[in-house]
From TrEMBL:
Gene Ontology terms, MF aspect: hydrolase activity; metal ion binding; monooxygenase activity
Enzyme class: oxidoreductase
Species of origin: Decorospora gaudefroyi
Primary site of residence: secreted
Enzyme Commission numbers on file: 1.14.99.56
Gene3D superfamilies, alphabetized: 2.70.50.70
UniProt family annotation: Belongs to the polysaccharide monooxygenase AA9 family.
Chemical reaction(s) catalysed: [(1->4)-beta-D-glucosyl]n+m + reduced acceptor + O2 = 4-dehydro-beta-D-glucosyl-[(1->4)-beta-D-glucosyl]n-1 + [(1->4)-beta-D-glucosyl]m + acceptor + H2O
Cofactor(s) the protein needs: Cu(2+)
UniProt domain Auxiliary Activity family 9 catalytic: residue ranges: 17-215
Protein name, UniProt field: lytic cellulose monooxygenase (C4-dehydrogenating)
Name of one Pfam family that matches: AA9
Length: 231
C-alpha cells in the first residue's frame, strides 16, 4: 500500500489537467466545444504551457477560429473549464481588439494588443493553497463582466489559469489558456490599456509565477499589467 500510494498520486497529478473549450454567455454555456473558442493544442491532452516566452502564450492555438459570439458591453462572459480547474492559482482575462481590416478567424494577436479586463486572484488572510484563498480553484466555470466602456467591435478574449502547484522554483508554473472570438456591441468610448504582448508580458522570474509552500506565502500579486479601470 505504501509503495502504490506515490504512484497513484503521480497518476492523479498527471491527469489533473484541463482546458477551456466553451464560452459562457450570460450564464449559458455553449453546447459544443470549439465553437467560438479557437481550438487549442491541448484539445486532446489538457496539458498547459510552461514557457512564458513561447508564442503559445497568445492563444495556444491548434487551428484557426470558426465562429464568433456576440456579447454586449456590461454583460457577463465566461469560459467552461473541462473537467474543472484542478490546480490553485489566479485566473485572468485579457482582450485584444481585432483590426477592422482583419479576419477574426485568422488574425494573429502579436505585439502590444492585449489589455487585462479582469483578474480572479486571492481572497482572505492568511493565504493557503486551497479554495478558501483561490476563488477560481475547483470551478467548472469562470466569468467576468465585459467593461461597459470598451469600444464596440470584434475581439479575442483570452482566459488564463496559472497553476502554481509546482511553482516553488522558476519555470514550474503551468498556464492553461485559450482565446474566444467575440463581437462586442453597445460599447463605449474608453481607451483600454496598458497594452501588452504575449509573449512579453511575463518574465520567468515574476513573483506571480512562484509559490512558496514553506514558508507559506504571505502575499500574492498576479503577473501582468493592472486591470483596465474602464476609462
Amino acid at each position: 500500500m505504501h509503495i502504490l500510494t506515490p504512484l497513484l498520486l503521480l497518476a492523479s497529478t498527471a491527469q489533473a489537467h484541463y482546458r477551456f473549450s466553451k464560452l459562457v454567455l450570460n450564464g449559458v454555456p455553449e453546447t459544443t466545444e470549439w465553437t467560438s473558442v479557437r481550438q487549442t493544442k491541448n484539445y486532446q491532452t489538457n496539458s498547459g504551457v510552461t514557457s512564458v516566452t513561447s508564442p503559445d502564450m497568445r492563444c495556444f492555438q491548434n487551428r484557426p477560429g470558426t465562429g464568433t459570439a456576440t456579447v454586449a458591453a456590461g454583460d457577463t462572459l465566461g469560459f467552461v473549464a473541462s473537467p474543472a480547474i484542478s490546480h490553485f492559482g489566479p485566473v485572468q482575462f485579457y482582450m485584444a481588439k481585432v483590426p477592422d481590416s482583419a479576419n477574426i478567424n485568422t488574425w494573429e494577436p502579436a505585439g502590444n494588443v492585449w489589455f487585462k479586463a479582469a483578474s480572479i486572484a486571492t481572497v482572505g488572510s492568511p493565504l493557503t493553497s486551497g479554495a478558501s484563498t483561490w476563488p477560481a480553484y475547483q470551478k467548472s466555470q469562470v466569468e467576468f463582466t465585459i467593461p461597459k466602456n470598451v469600444p464596440s467591435g470584434k475581439y479575442l478574449v483570452r482566459v488564463e489559469s496559472i497553476a502554481l502547484h509546482q511553482a516553488s522554483s522558476v519555470g514550474g508554473a503551468q498556464m492553461y489558456l485559450s482565446c474566444a472570438q467575440v463581437e462586442v456591441t453597445g460599447g463605449g468610448n474608453g481607451t483600454p490599456g496598458p497594452l501588452v504582448a504575449f509573449p512579453g508580458a511575463y518574465s520567468p522570474n515574476d513573483p506571480g509565477l512562484r509559490w512558496s509552500y514553506y514558508p507559506i506565502a504571505t502575499s500574492y500579486r498576479a503577473p501582468g499589467p493592472a486591470v483596465w479601470d474602464g476609462n
